[in-house]
Amino acid sequence: MVDVPNSCPNSKDIAVPIFGALNVKTPNVGPNTTTLDFSYAYATSTTMPEAMEQNIEQTMSLVLINQQNVPVVEPLQDVRIEGSQVDFSVGFPYQEYELNGLTIAAVVHGSGPFANASDVAMSTVFGPALIEIN
Q1: What are the distances in angstroms from CA 74 to CA 47, 107, 109, 130, 132?
Q2: Pairing mode, if any, of strands 77-82 and 85-92?
Q3: Which superkingdom heads the taxonomic lineage of this protein's source (predicted)?
């Protein structure tokens, strides 16, 4: 389940975790193995600890959930931080995992492995970002 900010006046009464927004910056993702660009931002009231800023690539990963398949974990690459904005790239292994249809991406603490989408949700910090192919 996903909570869209300000879409439900009773959202505080529903036990659904609310994650930070994750954006796919690469337009028109096609059926190819490629590199995708993403971004997320820490809340303006939150200051990113310096230790976290220096270790994002080591402590966080991007997970791709597609159909009923085991989630695919990809390392963050080329991490760029400007203020509260974090931009990064990640490999999109389309052909290796046949990532047709809807793929859900999430930034998580750790590097898995994750057995299923529920396991991914337990470690998610930012997401979902939606990638639709075919």
Answers
A1: 26, 10, 12, 16, 18
A2: antiparallel
A3: Eukaryota
* Dihedral (CA of 43, 61, 1, 97) sign: positive
Residues 6+ apart with CB under 8 A from 10: none
Contacts of residue 101, Cβ cutoff 8 Å, sequence gap at least 6: 66, 67, 132, 133, 134
Cα–Cα distance measured from residue 67 to residue 63, given in angstroms and rounded to the nearest whole number:
13
Q: Whole-prediction pTM value?
A: 0.86
Which regions of the chain does DSSP assign to beta strands (E)?
22-24, 34-41, 60-66, 72-75, 77-82, 85-92, 101-109, 124-133
pLDDT digits (tens, 9 = 90+) for 111-125: 999 999 999 999 999
Q: Could you tell me the two tokens for 65?
A: 């959930």
Side chain identity, residue 29: V
